[in-house]
Amino acid sequence: MIRIDRRGALLLGLAAGTAWATKASAQKPSTKVTVALDWTPNTNHIGLYVARDKGFYAEAGLDVDILPYGDTSAGTLISSRVADFGIAGALGFFTQKAAGADLKAIYAVVQTETGRLVFNADRDDIMRPRDLDGLIYGGFGSDWEKTLISTLIRNDGGEGTFETLTLGTSAYEALASGAVDFTLEVYTWEGVKAELENRPQRAFRYADHGVPDQHTTFLASSKAYLAAHPQTARAFVQATRRGYAFAVENQDEAARVLVDANKDMLTDPALIRASLKALVDGNYLARNDGNVGTIDPAKVEAIGGFLFSAGILRDSDGAPLEARPDFTNWFSNEFLGDG
């Protein structure tokens, strides 16, 4: 298990692995691998770019192509065999898997929930979740949002009623201007951006109000690909893990790698540095014990059960699943190389 709190041991091990991998890669051609993103490049993807541009993939005998982000979800690209691997948000992963997509989570990019419910800091009328009853939510149009927010409010003794304006990413501007009362954001991106722009916010964490904590982002593949190419999958996951471990230990260099690889899209290096710092300081990329990448079975079971009970997990016909899935088959840690 990679632990980034023992830096000397890690670097020694990486050096030995590098020497072996370099020799091996010189003896055979690189294996082509494709990986899809769940959004435009951001700090959640930093390990991929570090592993590619620092040569970790090449040392593992891989030629990795990070596909440009498009309108088709990473889960769809994986299950349809367009991409071998992909970054998948947890909600998209669970809903697509429930509907029959050939997906399997094989690496936890984010160790704990990065999302939160936010409102402007000067709102003295919002002190606890039940104060949100009857207010206006700027949202994104998913069943998950209604379930999540209603749960927070009801668990605090409220009715769980609120008005929704579906605004997409314009919700953040609407919140700043006061056009809506609250929204949901990813702290390590939108939240950090608000801090940099001096827009004070307060927030409710989901897990403080009865919603299970979760890995908000996975690296996933298809069961078909994993069965056909187990060695390639191990090489890819372990090199990717090196990339994320490097980013935790070397924030400035990793941020430069990400920005340099996406200069046309990432035009605010200060945001990238601050976002990565938040991911590291908050133990989002690495747990308190220093582990990176390992999927926690209890978290998968808890959030999966929550989504099932809420009727969010639906089959290919759009009907809520009648039987609770066996979530142990939805993920695997076997490709991490922990022995």
TrEMBL record:
Keyword Iron: yes
Enzymatic reactions: N(6)-(pyridoxal phosphate)-L-lysyl-[4-amino-5-hydroxymethyl-2-methylpyrimidine phosphate synthase] + L-histidyl-[4-amino-5-hydroxymethyl-2-methylpyrimidine phosphate synthase] + 2 Fe(3+) + 4 H2O = L-lysyl-[4-amino-5-hydroxymethyl-2-methylpyrimidine phosphate synthase] + (2S)-2-amino-5-hydroxy-4-oxopentanoyl-[4-amino-5-hydroxymethyl-2-methylpyrimidine phosphate synthase] + 4-amino-2-methyl-5-(phosphooxymethyl)pyrimidine + 3-oxopropanoate + 2 Fe(2+) + 2 H(+)
GO BP annotation list: thiamine biosynthetic process
Family, as annotated: Belongs to the NMT1/THI5 family.
Oligomeric and partner information: Homodimer.
GO molecular function: metal ion binding; transferase activity
Pfam families referenced in this protein's UniProt entry, alphabetically: NMT1 (PF09084)
Physiological role: Responsible for the formation of the pyrimidine heterocycle in the thiamine biosynthesis pathway. Catalyzes the formation of hydroxymethylpyrimidine phosphate (HMP-P) from histidine and pyridoxal phosphate (PLP). The protein uses PLP and the active site histidine to form HMP-P, generating an inactive enzyme. The enzyme can only undergo a single turnover, which suggests it is a suicide enzyme.
PANTHER family with a match to the protein in the record: 4-AMINO-5-HYDROXYMETHYL-2-METHYLPYRIMIDINE PHOSPHATE SYNTHASE THI11-RELATED (PTHR31528:SF1)
Keywords of this entry: Iron, Metal-binding, Pyridoxal phosphate, Signal, Thiamine biosynthesis, Transferase
Name of the protein: Thiamine pyrimidine synthase
Signal peptide residue numbers: 1-21
KW Signal (keyword) present: yes
Matching InterPro entries: NMT1/THI5, SsuA/THI5
Lineage: superkingdom: Bacteria
The protein's annotated pathway: Cofactor biosynthesis; thiamine diphosphate biosynthesis
Ranges of residues in domain SsuA/THI5-like: 42-254
SUPFAM superfamilies in the cross-refs: Periplasmic binding protein-like II
Organism in which the protein naturally occurs: Pseudaminobacter soli (ex Zhang et al. 2022)
